[in-house]
Amino acid sequence: MNADCRPALTLRQDTVGALAAMQAVFARDMKVAFRQRQDLLNPLLFFVMVVTLFPLGVSPEVSFLREAGAGILWVAALLSVLLSLDHLFRHDFDDGTLEQLVLQPQPLFLLVLAKTAAHWVLTGLPLVVLTPVLGVMVHLDGNSIGVLCLTLLIGTPVLSLIGSIGAALTLGLRSAGVLLSLLIIPLYIPVLIFGTGTVASAAEGAPVGAYLALMGAFLVLALTLAPFASAAALRISLSNG
Amino acid sequence: MWQFFHKLGSPKWFFGISARLMPWLLAGGILLLMAGIVWGLAFAPKDYLQGNSYRIIFIHVPTAFLAQSVYVMMAVAAVVTLVWRMKLADVFVKSVAPVGLVLTFLSLFTGAVWGKPTWGTWWVWDARLTSMLILLFLYGGVIALDRAINDEKSAARAVSVLVLVGVVNIPIIQYSVEWWNTLHQPSTFKLTEKPSMPAEMWVPLLLSVLGLYLLFGWLACLRMQTEILLREQRTRWVKDYVLAGRG
């Protein structure tokens, strides 16, 4: 990797407040990502390709796609978030930035939260933006596409947050990628169930408020607890090396 | 109380006390389990709806019960590992995770065998079954993570974090039958209410649950002893113990 791509992080003074530190971490992650655009594109390409596999592999029938479309998009989004998680801490771990982050006076869980937020803006949000196009391709109606986008908008941050725990736990291990999937997929299942359940309920014309509220609850739960768990896991992984 | 707590941290002390406890756990476990199963399979009355096929409950419920409660025990031990860095707690998590995996598998398997005659299918994607399947994956993840990290201490702490994160699944399993309308019948035992079946049915069931608990206790002690011997192999007392030819 080209060293010039990765600006150093400078938060050394104690006077830098936690919020300013979070902003600095977030801005740096954005900068790094935009200097390596291919890494940004890969999860999106993967998302599109996985969705393409279903009409080709199972059935291109409109009735099947309309029925299964939301599920297909959700599973594809889940997998592509999973795929991108390996990058969340890996490069920072390899070049020592992560060690510097842990040593900062600002609380680590806030910095982890900033990193996770950057990860979501770079992978989750583009997936949501891409969803209407793919939704039309799998013959979802307009209302379903809207609800689907909404569930993904609430659901993908949860995926990033839970995923950050797994990424932190498997940091620096052999075959970390497969292990990461093993650890994280069970935790993704509830989000998937409620995400697709919302769209199914919307397709039947039933109210979706309760489902969305539950997904919001997931988001709040993940937002408040996951950064602590990932910060703890990061400290463990770093002491391991 | 605090002295007891400190002693609990000493592998050597645990080794001694568990050696004395194990014959009782084994004997009690086998006795209760035999009594419960023989009574349940041969003497308990038939179910008016399901006939004899319901009798698998005497194996299904104990394994499912224990599969969940082993995870809760692991979670408690995980907190102890993270907060007090107690050696025994992480020995417990490591030794017990495979047992929990097997128990979860057994409860899913017996559930499938029971489902075939009653529901007409081996498997349904119902809330309870799915969340038990997730529990199986969680156990698998815990074991995989433990094996993947070479350093004993960081493995213990990483696994503890994972176990605690996975704990969200336990209430979901417990209440899935009440929250969602599913095929799976509600729990037999509740703390606050009388069991919904006659005494000739629930007494043997309770016996086999308790028996399996004791048997699990025995197995946990045995596996923990093995793990302790492995970890402490360089200490004096383990050398003495081995040279003395098993006591």
UniProtKB/TrEMBL annotation, chain A:
Domain of life: Bacteria
InterPro entries named among the record's database cross-references: Cyt_c_biogenesis_CcmB (IPR003544), Cyt_c_CcmB_bac (IPR026031)
Name of the molecule in the record: Heme exporter protein B
Principal place of residence: membrane
Transmembrane segments: 40-58, 70-89, 109-133, 145-171, 178-203, 209-234
Function recorded in the entry: Required for the export of heme to the periplasm for the biogenesis of c-type cytochromes.
Cellular compartment(s): Cell inner membrane
Keyword Secreted: no
Protein topology in the membrane: Multi-pass membrane protein
Keywords from the named record: Cell inner membrane, Cell membrane, Cytochrome c-type biogenesis, Membrane, Transmembrane, Transmembrane helix, Transport
PANTHER family: CYTOCHROME C BIOGENESIS B-RELATED, HEME EXPORTER PROTEIN B
GO cellular component, one term: plasma membrane
Cleavable signal peptide: none
GO molecular function: heme transmembrane transporter activity
Family listed: Belongs to the CcmB/CycW/HelB family.
GO biological process, alphabetically ordered: cytochrome c biosynthetic process; cytochrome complex assembly
From TrEMBL, chain B:
GO cellular component, one term: plasma membrane
One MF annotation (Gene Ontology) recorded for this entry: heme transmembrane transporter activity
Topological relation to the membrane, as annotated: Multi-pass membrane protein
Keywords for the protein's UniProt record, in alphabetical order: Cell inner membrane, Cell membrane, Cytochrome c-type biogenesis, Membrane, Transmembrane, Transmembrane helix, Transport
Transmembrane segments: 21-44, 56-84, 96-115, 127-146, 158-177, 201-222
Location in or out of the cell: Cell inner membrane; Membrane
A Pfam family per the record: Cytochrom_C_asm
Gene Ontology biological process terms in this record: cytochrome complex assembly
Keyword Iron-sulfur among record annotations: no
Family membership noted in the UniProt record: Belongs to the CcmC/CycZ/HelC family.
Chain's role: Required for the export of heme to the periplasm for the biogenesis of c-type cytochromes.
Protein name: Heme exporter protein C
Source organism of the structure: Marinobacter maroccanus
Upper classification of the organism: Bacteria, Pseudomonadati, Pseudomonadota, Gammaproteobacteria, Pseudomonadales
